[in-house]
Specification:
The chain is mostly beta strands. The protein has a domain of about 100 residues. About 5% of the residues lie in helices and about 45% in strands. The strands form two sheets. The protein has a six-stranded antiparallel beta sheet with strand order 3-4-5-6-7-8. Strands 1-2 form a two-stranded antiparallel sheet. The protein is globular.
């Protein structure tokens, strides 16, 4: 989740074992730097449907609003072993979507000098994201 403290520099997580009735204490996630900015998380596949659980996460992966990055988790968001930078410069809010053919889309704010110069749609597949290590 988005941290509520302005001085926080990591994404925050809480876990529920009872369908959301109760939650663990919220804690910062060390491998997910965040500038207190809107991000996107989206399930890509399930183990039952595609042999592996895959969850995508996109945000400006820094303490400033830059370095728009897409990450991939195979263990229900406990770790993020795959990451690929979409734009190294100023960037901000992002939104992920999956096309019927499995193409991943990330709509995000970006610029060369300021994060709100343009809105871009990046389209890519699982093979590009993982450098050829995974595919559907």
């Amino acid at each position: 989740m988005r941290p509520s403290r302005k001085d926080a520099r990591r994404r925050v997580e809480a876990w529920s074992a009872d369908g959301g009735l109760t939650w663990s204490k919220a804690a910062e996630v060390e491998p997910l730097p965040d500038p207190v900015c809107q991000a996107s998380v989206l399930r890509y596949t399930t183990a039952a449907g595609h042999g592996k659980s895959r969850v995508l996460f996109a945000n400006p992966a820094s303490v400033e609003r830059n370095t728009m990055t897409v990450r991939l988790s195979y263990d229900e968001c406990r770790s993020w072993p795959v990451s690929r930078v979409l734009h190294a410069g100023p960037s901000s809010y992002s939104d992920l979507a999956i096309a019927p053919d499995g193409t991943i889309a990330c709509l995000y704010e970006r610029g060369n000098y300021h994060r709100r110069e343009a809105i871009r749609l990046a389209q890519f597949n699982l093979e590009w994201l993982t450098g050829g290590e995974d595919s559907l």
